[in-house]
Amino acid sequence: MRINNLLSLLIFVSLFSFQKTQAQSNTNSPYSTLGFGRPVDANSTHFKSMSGVGIGISNGQFINFLNPASYTDLELTTFEFGGEGTMATYKQGENVKTFNSANFSQLGLGMPLNDKAALTFGILPVSHVGYDIQDVKAFEYFPSNTTDTIGYRNSFLGSGGVGSFLGGFAYKPMPNLSVGVNIQFQYGNIDKTTEKEFEKNNYLSNRKLSTYNINHFSYKLGAQYRHKLDEKRALIAGATYDIGGDKNIERSELHYTYVHTSELENTIDTVFFRDLEEGTITLPSTFGFGLSYEIKDKLTLGIDFKQTNWSKFAIFGEKEDRFVDQTSIALGGSYIPNKNDVRNLWKRSTYRFGINYKTGYLNTSFPNGNTNLTEFGINFGIGLPIRKARGTLNLGLGYSQIGSLDNGGVKEQIFKAFLSLTIRDKWFVQRKID
Questions:
Q1: CA-based angle 117:122:126, to the nearest 5?
Q2: Strand ranges in 262-342 using DSSP code E only, listed in sequence order
């Protein structure tokens, strides 16, 4: 594929993906009510199919956003675009709800500048917000010594999310050591509505609307060290650090009362209004460590460990006690039966697998007690080589279970299907014949 065609495709998909990420609600999880929503582990399908293992993996065929130090091993200019479909089931007691969606998942462009340096660009999701919680209740009152019952409904609605434009750079200061940095511009809007609505119009219902505008930079540092065992085998150790801290944020709030008359809604009074208040959001920092064993063009096995201090998270200086520090561990790998078999596609293909476990970043309060929001996941996939295009068609499937039914909690069961296309080409090489 010529460079100008690839650039045109990249620009078009970038603009389309930006608009879709801003406009869509990509989850229906009640756990997205807090903070800036449910965090997303964003990466290419190759690493998603290995349950997110990648801090200690350096693969020259795919862009590894998990560790920016890995970019130096890119063999060719690499373009990746992908999406995913989700079927999520939410259970609480006897109640069951299913939600389906199909969304953009990643866009990336990685370019080796020489044998020591590389650049990457990408668009990735950061978090999703999407919930609709209805709680119908009643209370009694006693006018003129009679008992009557008034019904009302508490509603909690949310939508939006956070995405990011990413730029990365990596450099090899010595043959076996790589260091790198990701710079992300995170953007997005989150809308939240809380209301109490009475069924009788002689009671004032009230509604609170909150909008958060997010525009700030975040940074990730990474390093990898490769220890060669022989010509084909190697051990790779990697480390990453996501720098948290205070970031700029804006919010607007409107709180008003209203009543229903027939099917109409009449506003009565504005209780509170604040337009574009500037403040800060305190993001958690994350330290990650990974180790992998590699047989070149044959086998990769890796393990990752990450620790995120979610207990530091705050919006406008307000901390939420339900955020707790999270520990994540993932195991995964890939296998190629015979990369050079020109007759058998399945022997040239890459087979991926992985499992992961996360302790809860939320301590959820339910009627019968508190429960940490733990997560378990299993993933697998395949990469089908496209020889003429120097590309790979990546397919993957994943299952994860989040939360539990204990203490009246909500259990999420999520099935995902991943699809992406990786295309590789030679850039920065002078053509001898045009």
A1: 125
A2: 264-283, 286-295, 299-308, 314-315, 318-319, 326-335
